[in-house]
């Protein structure tokens, strides 16, 4: 991959405005490759790559869950933790409508719509995370405490 220009996405604009230090990481995006591909391309552990999942409750209200790349979300535990009956992933179309980002390029920063954000609390134990910067094939490296400072997420323990 040639030296590509770093994208300026709504996520990047928000991080710059907040004066949060981050690093840019471009990689060759693979359809349906997920965090395994980005971790491999960046040469980091998949556990440090944080996925941004857009879900909705039984009323169709959207929410965002930040989860380690090598773990899944227990939707049953999440629903219990946030006091709703059910939580399920949104359709890709609904996720794009809520966030303004294409699936595979969804960043929790600079979303189109304000939504509640839930973060797996063990993410804060990591010294650095790699999270989508708002474009497929682009992650930003950031201190998870800085990410939490911007997103103000509710902490949950819902990893399986």
Explain the layout of strands and helices:
Layout: H1 10-17, E1 23-26, H2 34-42, E2 49-57, E3 62-68, H3 75-82, E4 87-89, H4 92-99, E5 117-120, E6 129-135, E7 138-142, H5 144-151, E8 154-156
Parallel strand pairs: 2-6, 3-5, 5-8
Antiparallel strand pairs: 1-7, 2-3, 2-4, 6-7
Give an overview in words.
By secondary structure, the protein is an alpha/beta fold. It has a single domain, classed as YbaK protein (Alpha-Beta Complex). It has helices spanning 10-17, 34-42, 75-82, 92-99, 144-151, and strands at 23-26, 49-57, 62-68, 87-89, 117-120, 129-135, 138-142, 154-156. Strands 1, 2, 3, 4, 5, 6, 7 and 8 form an 8-stranded mixed beta sheet that branches.
CATH class: Alpha Beta
Q: Outline the biggest β-sheet.
A: 8 strands, mixed
Low-pLDDT segments, ≥5 res:
none
Instruction: Tell me the strand percentage band.
Output: 25-35%
Helical content class: 25-40%
The CATH architecture name reads Alpha-Beta Complex
Helical run tally:
5
What radius of gyration results from the CA coordinates? 15 Å
CATH topology: YbaK protein
Q: What's this, in brief?
A:
This protein is α/β, with parallel strands linked by helices.
Attribute tags:
160 residues, alpha/beta, YbaK protein, 5 helices, 26% strand
């Amino acid at each position: 991959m040639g030296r590509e220009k770093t994208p300026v996405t709504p996520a990047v604009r928000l991080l710059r405005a907040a004066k949060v230090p981050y690093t840019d990481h471009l990689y060759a995006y693979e359809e349906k490759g997920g965090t395994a591909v980005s971790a491999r391309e960046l040469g980091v552990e998949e556990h440090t790559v944080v996925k941004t999942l857009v879900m909705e409750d039984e009323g169709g209200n959207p929410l965002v869950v930040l989860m380690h790349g090598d773990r899944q979300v227990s939707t049953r535990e999440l629903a219990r933790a946030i006091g709703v009956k059910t939580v399920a992933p949104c359709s890709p179309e609904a996720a794009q409508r809520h966030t303004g980002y294409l699936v595979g390029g969804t960043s929790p920063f600079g979303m189109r719509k304000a939504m509640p954000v839930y973060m797996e609390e063990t993410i804060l134990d990591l010294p650095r995370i790699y999270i989508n910067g708002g474009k497929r094939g682009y992650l930003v490296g950031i201190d998870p405490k800085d990410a939490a400072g911007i997103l103000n997420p509710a902490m949950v323990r819902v990893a399986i």
